[in-house]
Structures are given as C-alpha cells and as structure tokens.
UniProtKB/TrEMBL annotation:
Signal peptide: none annotated. Its EC number is 2.5.1.60. Catalyzes the transfer of a geranyl-geranyl moiety from geranyl-geranyl pyrophosphate to cysteines occuring in specific C-terminal amino acid sequences. It comes from the Eukaryota. GO terms for cellular component: Rab-protein geranylgeranyltransferase complex. This is Geranylgeranyl transferase type-2 subunit alpha. It holds the Pfam family PPTA. Keywords: Prenyltransferase, Repeat, Transferase. PROSITE patterns: PFTA. It is an enzyme of class 2 (transferase). Belongs to the protein prenyltransferase subunit alpha family. The lineage of its organism: Eukaryota, Fungi, Fungi incertae sedis, Mucoromycota, Mucoromycotina. It comes from Mucor circinelloides f. lusitanicus (Mucor racemosus var. lusitanicus).
Length: 286
C-alpha cells in the first residue's frame, strides 16, 4: 500500500501496528529490537527521499530517532543531529509551503527545557508521620520515593495522591510512615509528567531534608484539610503499575540526546530561515 501511496495514513497506521507486534515478539532481546528500529528508520529515509511531503514518515522518524542514537557516543549523536538538520533543510528549501518538514524541523530543534521540579518536602510538626511532597507539575510515580531515618535506613511508607480528581496523578503527594523520617529521596526517572509542557531532568536525584511545617494559622487550615482528605483517601493508596510504564519521548526534552551548542544552533537556524525568506518572500515559513 505504501509503495503505491507513500502518504496513506491507513498504511502507516497498519505498519505501526505490525511493528508493535514484532517488538512484542522480540521481547527483551536488544539486538532484535535494535534491528527492528534500524529497519524502520531506513524505511522512513527511503520514503522521505522519494517525497519530502510525507508527514507520516517525518512523524515516524521523530519517534525512532531517540532509540537510534541511544547507544552512540556523544560525537556520533551530534553528527546524527547535524545530518538530520541537513536533511530537513533540504526538504524545506525544496518546498517551503509544505508543513510536514517544518514540523520535524521544529521537533528537531526542540524547545527550552522546562523540567519537573520537586519544590519542597515537608513534615508536619504536630504529626511527623505525615510527609508532604510538592511538585511544579502533576506527576505520576512509577516507584515510591524513599523515606530515610536518622541512620539513612529506608522506612516503610504509604503513598497517596492529593488530588480529588485523580487516583494516580497529582502535584502534591502524601507519604505516611510509622518511623521518624529525616530525608526523602526521589529519583527523577521514576516519575512521569502529565503533559508535554514539562520534561524530566536526566540523572536527577532529589535528596532533601524534610522541612518542619509548623501549625501557624495559615498552615492549620491546610493541615486540617489534609488530614481529613487523607482519612477519606485511604482506598486511593498508590500501588505499583500493573503494567510497565514508559516515559513518552515526546514528554522529554526533544534535544536532550545531542549536546550541540543550543545558542549557536538557534542563531544558525534563524539565519537559514531569513535566507529562505529572501529567496521566497511569500513563503509560509514567515
């Protein structure tokens, strides 16, 4: 089907379905999985070279590229990024009115990273068994954070999302323990943001000492509400996902896999767009 009509959405959907089945059959065999990804990547190259105006091929390429470069050296990844920029700029110069290449160009350049951040970790002064974590985005946990005591021993704890509209996602999370917690440790790789507005910082580990939340008038209402909510949410205790959860690459910083100078890169690409506008003053790229 894609041989006759390389842009057929139904054909690309079915191909993704077949590839997904092949991935499941490959299981945990890294060589088999790498071969599948390489073959698909080559297929997108073939279809793009046949016609730059192929949204499905560009889109599929954006999903495959982070997997293609995962085992490469930093220098190799940077070279791949430069090669991809050359490819997509050729497409843009060939047909500046076509949006498919522009979308891939935007994806490749990425955006300024806006990372998920653990804003604070608090322990209620009146009830030290309650620990509160606050994030700058609604997040999901794939594993529980670790609560540590004075001897850095891990404490057993229960985890609850503080959100009336969700049982597994929240920006405020409550940990309940029977021990005397001193610190909390959260690995960034065990959380997922709720939207593409935020990304996960790579290799980040938050290791925070708990701040005491005193019972002043402002906090007292919050603490009372918190305890009442916790009592009503005992059935909503966090549980490990029944199926393995994967971080969607589109939720991550798209350019995190290469280390080219971002400032220089953007300056160069701005010049590229200006040059194109000089050639095609009525182009949609403006």
């Amino acid at each position: 089907m894609l041989t006759m009509d390389a842009r057929n959405f139904h054909g690309w959907d079915y191909r993704r379905f077949v590839v997904g089945h092949l991935r499941r059959e490959a299981g945990n065999d890294p060589q088999a999985l790498a071969h599948i990804v390489q073959q698909e990547y080559k297929f997108t190259t073939q279809k793009i070279n046949q016609s730059f105006s192929n949204y499905s091929a560009w889109h599929q390429r954006s999903k495959l590229l982070p997997e293609i470069v995962v085992s490469m050296t930093t220098e190799e990844k940077n070279q791949v990024a430069l090669n991809e920029l050359d490819l997509v700029k050729n497409a843009i110069y060939t047909d500046p009115e076509d949006q498919s290449a522009w979308l891939y160009y935007w994806w490749l350049l990425g955006r300024a990273p806006d990372h998920v951040t653990l804003l604070g970790a608090y322990q209620m002064e009146s009830d030290p068994s309650i620990v509160i974590l606050g994030f700058n985005d609604t997040i999901r946990f794939m594993q529980k954070p670790r609560l540590l005591d004075q001897q850095d021993e891990t404490l057993d704890c229960r985890l609850y999302p503080f959100d009336a509209n969700s049982q597994n996602a929240a920006s405020i999370w409550i940990l309940q323990t029977t021990g005397a917690a001193k610190r909390v440790v959260v690995d960034a790789h065990v959380i997922l943001p709720s939207t593409s507005a935020k990304s996960i910082p790579h290799d980040k580990v938050w290791n925070l000492e708990l701040n005491k939340l005193d019972c002043n008038i402002g906090n007292l209402h919050f603490i009372t509400f918190l305890l009442g909510s916790l009592a009503s949410k005992l059935s909503d205790e966090w549980k490990p996902p029944a199926t393995r959860m994967y971080a969607d690459p589109t939720l991550d910083d798209q350019t995190s896999w290469f280390t080219l100078d971002k400032l220089k890169l953007f300056k160069d690409e701005i010049e590229t767009v200006r040059e194109l506008l000089d050639i095609e003053p009525e182009s949609a790229c403006k």
